[in-house]
Every structure is written in structure tokens, then in C-alpha cells.
């Protein structure tokens, strides 16, 4: 009969074997691809020595196709929790060395249990994805396992932050779990996501494409918008996951953590007047404005390479997390189009779900005109951003830096759709459209009948600008709360957000709204 010492020794041996993988060649292959093992990734993500693993000895019960002869501990996924900067975070990581990280019944049940624990504990969930999809040998039970994950992703949405880190292949239905989460991180060269792989695409459409060309990090970071962040290596990627978690609350019932800042909240920002040109058509990089305003110039931009005519970024003001939505004149003159509207709408919605105040930096000439935009549904997609802002109950502050024309002015969190406070620089122009276009419409007959149409046109443009586009027009009508100097912007924002920190807004009784998806 085995003694207690014998059983303890066996336990230690089994746990060690599960951690190291009985197949040392599989570990060498993983490293040879430039990829870390599941445990190595968890160690980089979590605070040193904080990881508590659960179900390390779980084994599948499948039979057939030789499965009964291969029953490794862990069943290809590592699950547990630890801390990031001292705060609890739940994590699961596919172990590609075991069944290629493919999901079977036991594998899925481990993830289900961890997700349930994360929701119950009210703590963020991070998935480290590197798996070959559903385990073919287990058939429909593997597919049902994915269904359970998707259902829990949806139940956790807006309740706890969910972050997906793509570190290897993710094909078929497996790609939908990351798509349901709040943020997706990808590593160049090793991570891919697609519903149908290159072989299927080639067979069905005749298109010849590589894995990376079809669903690599660059594709999803710049074309599809599936990935929010793209990195060259796993270490840098996981470091920024930690940084993102430091900006977020544990759940929707808490405020984001506050970090003492040595950057004075009343610091003046006179350089903003130099960064933003007076001429409404001259370009500049709005990220320079953001860096000048926020604490220590640090911010984490979301979707940096996708829908670049709008910038969405997380930062701190006076030590408190804020979400910033800013038109980007350096790309498409800062217009709102289909993809930028979607990008900003999702970001606003996320900030509202997790009690993150929203600052909107406005310099927008309007929505992008064109047949393609109209036919592809700019009305419906633009309405997504409008709905997100109107529905948001967190503190909302608008700063109009230069121009704000037409419907885009309204959509970019104007007072009329519920911004708590609106400020404008003296250079602001708020109007239905630019003076040139407005004069062509309003004074069309005068210009056409004039002996010197160019002179009359110039005079009428000046007249329209003086009457309706002077910087104090909106302030006189209460549509902006104050006209401020650019150098006061940081101080004004810090004071405004401090005032609104205890804001409470009662939502109407309803099951949920029906946004224009």
C-alpha cells in the first residue's frame, strides 16, 4: 500500500511532468518557432510567484482514434489566476505542445470553470491563445465546448475586462471568442486568425494566399480592425497587456485605479497653439496634442493602424484614467467615415461600460463624402458612434480645437447629445459647413450675377464667417461652456473631470437598447 510520502512524490512528479511536457521535442519545436511555452507566457504576464494553477491534472475521457492511449495531464490548456501589479487577474493559456493546443471536452470545461470564477470574483480575464482549433477526434463535444466559451464571453461583456492575446494560430470558430472580447493583441510572424484557412480559400475561390497574408497581425491590425494592438515579440506584447490592465478597473462596479502623478494638473500647455495651425485646412498630428495634455505624455493608443482618421487612446489626467477620442487631421483631414465611426463607437462603449471618463478632442470637417461611403452604409455606421455617445453615462468633456462642421460636430459629443461640458479654443469654427461651401450655396445668385464673381465670392465668404463662424458664436448661445486658451487645456480638463468624478446618471428602465449594429 502506498504511503503518504509515496503519493506526495507521485503528485510532485505528475505536476512537474505536466508543466515541462513529457515531450521535450515539442518544447524545442515551440522555441524554434520563436514562441514561448504556456507557462513561460504566464510568468511574463503575472507578478513573479503569484500564479495559482487549477486543474493541472485534468485529463480527457475521449476514446477512439487512439485517444484512449494518450491522456496527458492538463489536456492542453493551463488555467489559474495571479496578480498584475498586485491586482487579481484570471488567465488561461493554450499549451501548443499538447494536442497542438486543440480544444476538447475536458479542455473546454477547464476554461468554462475559470471564466465562471472570473465573473464571480469580478476580476479581469486574459486568454493566451495558441491552439489548433477544435479537437477533431472529439467531434461535436469539442464544438459544444466553444459554444460554452462564447456564451460566457457574452455574459462577461461589460462586467469584467476581457483581453485576448494571439500568440499562435486561431482558426475557424475559435476566432470568435477573441472577437467577443474587449481587446485583441497579436504578435507578428506567429499569430494568425481566420475563419477558413488558405487551403479552403484556394479550393473555393482559387485565391492563393499565405497564412500571414490571410490573417496575420498586420492584416488584422491595419485592414480588418480585428486586432487592437500589434507587436514584434511576445515579451513586448505581454508587457503592454500589463500596462493596459493597470489602466482598467477590475470590473464594472469599480472605478479605474488612481496612480499619483508628479505631472501638475494645472500645468500650462502653450505649445498646443503651435502644434495646431490656424489655417483650418493645414494638417498636424493630433497625437502630439494628446501627449502634451496627458500625464507625462504617456498614452496607449487603440487600433493605431486602423481607421486612422480618428485616434482612440487610454491615458491618465491627474492620475485618473481617461479615454480620449480625437479627430486626426493627418489622415483624411480627420473626417469621420465608416471604419473610424465604428472604431470610435466601440471605444466609447468600452469606456462607458468600465467607468472611464471620455474626453473628445474635436477638429472635424465632416463625414467622408462619396458614393462608396453612402452605398456601404455611412448613415448606419455613423449612427453607431452617435448612439454610443448618447448612451454613455460616464463624465464626458468636449474640446473643440479648430473646426467642427455639420453632422460630424453633433456626433463628436456635442452638448446637444449630452456632453457634460464643452470647451472651445478661440480658433474654433462651428458651422453647418465651411465658409467657402456655405457662401456658394447661400449667395449663389449674387455671385453668379456679379461683374466680378471672385471678389463677391470672397466678400460673401468673409461675411458668412463673421456672422456665423466667429469663435464666440457658440458660446453666446450656450453650446460651449467656455472659450479657453490652448495653454489652459490640461488644467481645464483636470478641473472639469474632478468636478464630474461623482457623476451619477439613472438609465431608463429597459432590457437593453437596440443600437444600429
TrEMBL record:
InterPro entries: AccD/PCCB, AcCoA_carboxyl_beta, ClpP/crotonase-like_dom_sf, COA_CT_C, COA_CT_N. Its EC number is 2.1.3.1. It is an enzyme of class 2 (transferase). Keywords: Transferase. PROSITE patterns: COA_CT_CTER, COA_CT_NTER. This is Methylmalonyl-CoA carboxyltransferase 12S subunit. Residues 264-511 form the CoA carboxyltransferase C-terminal domain. Residues 1-260 form the CoA carboxyltransferase N-terminal domain. Gene3D superfamilies: 2-enoyl-CoA Hydratase, Chain A, domain 1. The keyword Transferase applies.
Amino acid at each position: 500500500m502506498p504511503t503518504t510520502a509515496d503519493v506526495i512524490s507521485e503528485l510532485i512528479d505528475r505536476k512537474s511532468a505536466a508543466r515541462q511536457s513529457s515531450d521535450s521535442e515539442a518544447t524545442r519545436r515551440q522555441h524554434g518557432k520563436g514562441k514561448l511555452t504556456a507557462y513561460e507566457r504566464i510568468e511574463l504576464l503575472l507578478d513573479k510567484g503569484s500564479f495559482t494553477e487549477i486543474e493541472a491534472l485534468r485529463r480527457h475521457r475521449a476514446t477512439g482514434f487512439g485517444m484512449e492511449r494518450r491522456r496527458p495531464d492538463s489536456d492542453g490548456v493551463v488555467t489559474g489566476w495571479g496578480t498584475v501589479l498586485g491586482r487579481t487577474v484570471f488567465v488561461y493559456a493554450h499549451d501548443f505542445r499538447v494536442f497542438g493546443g486543440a480544444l476538447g471536452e475536458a479542455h473546454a470545461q477547464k476554461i468554462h470553470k475559470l471564466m465562471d470564477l472570473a465573473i464571480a470574483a469580478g476580476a479581469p480575464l486574459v486568454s493566451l491563445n495558441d491552439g489548433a482549433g477544435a479537437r477533431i477526434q472529439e467531434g461535436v463535444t469539442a464544438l459544444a465546448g466553444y459554444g460554452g466559451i462564447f456564451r460566457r464571453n457574452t455574459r462577461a461583456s461589460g462586467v469584467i475586462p476581457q483581453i485576448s492575446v494571439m500568440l499562435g494560430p486561431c482558426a475557424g470558430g475559435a476566432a470568435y471568442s477573441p472577437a467577443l472580447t474587449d481587446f485583441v493583441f497579436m504578435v507578428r510572424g506567429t499569430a494568425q486568425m481566420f475563419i477558413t484557412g488558405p487551403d479552403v480559400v484556394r479550393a473555393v475561390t482559387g485565391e492563393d494566399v499565405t497564412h500571414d497574408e490571410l490573417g496575420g497581425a498586420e492584416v488584422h491590425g491595419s485592414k480588418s480592425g480585428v486586432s487592437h494592438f500589434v507587436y514584434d515579440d511576445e515579451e513586448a506584447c505581454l508587457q503592454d497587456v500589463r500596462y493596459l490592465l493597470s489602466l482598467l478597473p477590475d470590473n464594472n462596479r469599480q472605478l479605474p485605479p488612481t496612480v499619483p502623478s508628479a505631472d501638475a494638473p494645472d500645468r500650462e500647455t502653450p505649445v498646443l497653439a503651435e502644434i495646431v495651425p490656424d489655417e483650418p485646412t493645414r494638417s498636424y498630428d493630433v497625437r502630439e496634442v494628446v501627449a502634451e495634455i496627458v500625464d507625462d505624455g504617456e498614452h496607449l493608443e487603440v487600433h493605431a493602424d486602423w481607421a486612422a482618421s480618428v485616434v482612440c487612446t487610454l491615458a491618465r489626467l491627474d492620475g485618473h484614467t481617461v479615454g480620449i477620442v480625437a479627430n486626426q487631421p493627418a489622415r483624411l483631414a480627420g473626417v469621420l467615415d465608416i471604419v473610424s465611426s465604428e472604431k470610435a463607437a466601440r471605444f466609447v462603449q468600452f469606456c462607458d461600460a468600465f467607468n472611464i471618463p471620455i474626453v473628445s478632442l474635436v477638429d472635424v470637417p465632416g463625414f467622408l463624402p462619396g458614393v462608396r461611403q453612402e452605398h456601404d452604409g455611412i448613415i448606419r455606421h455613423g449612427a453607431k458612434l452617435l448612439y454610443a455617445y448618447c448612451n454613455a453615462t460616464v463624465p464626458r468633456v468636449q474640446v473643440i480645437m479648430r473646426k467642427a462642421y455639420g453632422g460630424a460636430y453633433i456626433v463628436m459629443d456635442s452638448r446637444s447629445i449630452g456632453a457634460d461640458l464643452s470647451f472651445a479654443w478661440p480658433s474654433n469654427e462651428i458651422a453647418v459647413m465651411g465658409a467657402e461651401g456655405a457662401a456658394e450655396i447661400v449667395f449663389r445668385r449674387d455671385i453668379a450675377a456679379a461683374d466680378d464673381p471672385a471678389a463677391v465670392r470672397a466678400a460673401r465668404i468673409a461675411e458668412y464667417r463673421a456672422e456665423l463662424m466667429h469663435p464666440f458664436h457658440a458660446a453666446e448661445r450656450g453650446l460651449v461652456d467656455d472659450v479657453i486658451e490652448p495653454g489652459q487645456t490640461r488644467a481645464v480638463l483636470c478641473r472639469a473631470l474632478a468636478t464630474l468624478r461623482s457623476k451619477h446618471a439613472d438609465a431608463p428602465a429597459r432590457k437593453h437598447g437596440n443600437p444600429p449594429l
